[in-house]
Amino acid sequence: MIDDQPDPARVTRGADPAAVGPYLAKTLGDDRWLACTVDLISGGKSNLTYVVESAAGALVLRRPPLGGVLPTAHDMVREYRVITALRDTAVPVPRTYALCENPALLGAPFYLMERVAGPIVGRELPPGYADRPEQRRSTLGDPLADVGLLLVYWSDPDDAGARTDAMVTPAATAHEGFPRRREVVELYAARSGRDVSALPWYQAFGFFKLAVVCAGIAARHRAGAMIGDGFEDVGARVAPLVDLGRAALAEGVVE
What we know:
Blueprint: H1 17-28, E1 37-40, E2 48-54, E3 57-63, H2 76-85, E4 96-100, E5 110-114, H3 144-153, H4 162-165, H5 181-192, H6 199-222, H7 238-251
Antiparallel strand pairs: 1-2, 2-3, 3-5, 4-5
Helix pairs in contact: 3-6, 6-7
């Protein structure tokens, strides 16, 4: 889901409305898209997301970063096909409208989908969402890889040192009522019946994976290929993430 408001500073780099508008007018058969505006949705650290608005309505455009793209890491075609295939299932996904595989238009493949407004949970929870501590007890996970990565992003209230240094995005889980990381593991093991003895390995894998992602983002930022805010200190997260991964492997416990 996306925030209700686009970035207040209009940024069209990577999605020029002079190119997007005619493409949408032709593809969707509605000339009202010719006069459109494009706004960057800030906060993301990988692919670029924009709100495209006109008298015909509002859509969301997704495209890869502007440079330094790793092979298969920013595959818009794959993303579009997965979302489209899930449309008539129980998985909630936005409706897709168009896929452009020709890089001549914006410099890379891109697609457009329905705009679904909603809260993005960062450090604070939005009003009306798990307001009471007893409503915050962490759901049945699935593969251990997902649980390990969940624990990478999960904050405990007394986190310090490498844990806070490695924080890429703020987490609301430090608030009262959310279980701690080790309690998350216990709850998952009890409800799933799975053996979680190898979970520190999966968590270490999650730390290393996020470290690689941060290193790539930092490199693209230095090359001027990222737009928006919040990229300046991403590179500083790499070393703490690697340290946490090594500690999880060496100690064999969830960090």
